[in-house]
Amino acid sequence: MYMQLVSFIGLQLALAWRVFQYVSGAPIETMLFTAPAWTGLDTSFSYTSGITGLELIGATIGVGMHQGLGIMFGHELSHTKGIGFLISRWMMALSGTAHFCFAHVYNHHLELGRAWMGPEGNKMGEDTDPATAPRGRSIYKHFIISHIGQSYFGVMTEKKRLARQGKGFFSLSNRWIRGYLMSIPTVALFLGAGWVGGGADGLLIGLAVMLVVWVISNFELEALNYMEHYGLIRVKDEPIEYRHSWDNDNAFTSWAFIEIGRQADHHDRGETHFWELSSVGGAPEGAPNAGIGYYTEFCLALVPPLWHRVYKRKLAIWDRDFASPEEQKIAREINAKVGYDVAPDEIKDRSLAVSYAM
Questions:
Q1: Averaged pLDDT of the chain
Q2: How far apart are the first and last CA of the chain?
Q3: How does pLDDT run across 83-112, given as a tens digit for each residue?
Q4: What global pTM score does this model have?
Q5: How far apart are CA 260 and CA 180, in angstroms?
Q6: Which of 33, 65, 104, 309 lies 20 to 30 Å from 218, alpha-carbon distance?
Q7: Whether 246 contacts 259, CB under 8 Å
Q8: Are the C-beta atoms of residues 4 and 72 closer than 8 Å to each other?
Q9: How would you class 209 by CB atoms within 10 Å of its CB: exposed for 0-12, middle for 13-18, buried for 19 or more?
Q10: Contact 293, 252 (CB under 8 A)
Q11: pLDDT tier at 356 (50, 70, 90 boundaries)?
């Protein structure tokens, strides 16, 4: 897991070099390198200098996607202490989201299922979880609200913590500020590569590349939050239970996402390593199962009408088989507002207890 930080740094250095090559107008040419005769190795390899705009776009998207998937390891390490937590902070900082580590542990894991409903609903604050997406919200809207909301949590908690210590908000004792300062090396790297290679125009290209990497990686992070708890409801001050997370024990999801789909057990035993997590079964005491793998879910989420069509039925089953009476009452009110009402006959023989192939 620690090596993910090394891979993040290596990929960003390589991408910054490509930015420099592009903005400096380095000629595109292929050079052949052959091992010296004295080594006894019959080895050669080619290196292409220079880069086209299309290649730079592809490299940028590739690095962003890798960082988004690698953030899973940052998430795992955020539940540790000492060097592990510090490495998690640096991994997140390289993606411009160092606030995640504290918000995830001290907000999401404590306020799970208490979604912020927007200005017309409950107030964004420490008693709501911006990472829980309420019914009817698209993944695109959730991406923005969750990212800003978790950062806002960091501002509010640090403001209170520092006030108790008699310190001002604007100080290096502020962990929220320190987190964003940890992103300065990445900012300097890409802006510097662009400026040195192409002046002001190159600086803007370097900035754009960095922002695209950050947007892609953070979108993947928030997509996981979206899929893991979408539409589930928890009454304030009631305990967090298995039913407040969508489990996903699809085999490919387990392999590709280091068991992050076993959300119910993860939220029950937050400091447990991912390889020790277990499936917890279905209704009435277990967790609802999404029934499809994360890749399929992600594709559905990218098309909100399809997502809502599928999940309004899944949530109707959750309301029937898992929700407490108070949660059912809240669900009925929300369903009426967002158009999630489902006739009982539509879900008569369905359950959320099994996982399918994909």
A1: 89
A2: 26
A3: 999 999 999 999 999 999 999 999 999 999
A4: 0.91
A5: 26
A6: 309
A7: no
A8: no
A9: buried
A10: yes
A11: very low
